[in-house]
Amino acid sequence: MRAQVQHWIDAGAARGQPHLLGITGPPGTGKTTLTAAIVRSFGAERVGVLPMDGFHLANAVLERLGRRARKGAPDTFDAAGFVVAVQRVAALRPGDPPVYVPDFDRALDEPVAGSHALLAGLGLIVVEGNYLGLDTAPWSRIRALLTELWYLDSSTDERLARLTARHIAGGRSAEAARVYAAEVDGANAGLVADARTNSDRVLGGEILAEFE
Predict the structure, then answer these.
(1) Residue 49 CB-density burial (10 A; 0-12 exposed, 13-18 middle, 19+ buried)
(2) Which H or E run includes 104?
(3) Does this model's pTM top 0.85?
(4) How far is CA 22 from the centre of its chain?
(5) Strand pairing partners for 19?
(6) Are 192 and 24 in contact (CB under 8 A)?
(7) Helix, strand, or coil here: 130?
(8) Dihedral of alpha carbons 106, 115, 40, 22, sign
(9) Which one in 8, 13, 136, 147 has a CA-CA gap of 20 to 30 Å to 89?
């Protein structure tokens, strides 16, 4: 896999049009960890990141919509905005201005605008998020823009342990964290798993070793 990623980086940089690698999978499988490992391995000057989580709706908006308790579900994102961002980076050519995209700050529990500057000079842009393989619009427009889509998987127990720890770190009680991981994240995980066949490769956590 490392050799394939290296090829995409070299080819994308040579043509001035980055390849787009999608990394998807249920919540808690380690998508962000794998993305960060790829960036560290090849360098931020060659690999950019477009995180779906940056397109979370703000908590105040979710409160108004009555969806704060289901944060992380497909309708709690600016899905159309995310699709447009993927389309823009897929269309990058030499001389184009940067495409600035948001990221998600777990400490703030909010998206932060303009966190990543994506340029045509990058060889690869990793597009990372739960819903890249969904068949429902507007998510369904993403797959055709990606060079390849990887599905990262792990055991249910491992995912729940990671998610529970994440929610505790975010301020929930241990019991509330366990419930949220099992019920809210669990429902979202089911949607992602249903779209697994839309991915090119299904990978386990051992893929990390190739980029460390």
Answers:
(1) buried
(2) strand 99-105
(3) yes
(4) 8
(5) 124
(6) yes
(7) coil
(8) positive
(9) 136
Question: What's the rounded Cα separation, in Å, for the pair 106 and 25?
Answer: 19
Strand partners of residue 51: 128
119 C-beta neighbours (distance < 10 Å), count = 17
Number of Cβ within a 10 Å radius of residue 158 = 14
For residue 163, count other CB atoms closer than 10 A to its CB. 24
One-letter identity of residue 112: V
d(CA 68, CA 172): 14
Determine contact, residues 54/103, Cβ cutoff 8 Å: yes
What CATH code would you report for 2-204? 3.40.50.300
Angle at which helix 174-194 crosses helix 156-169, to 10 degrees, equals 130
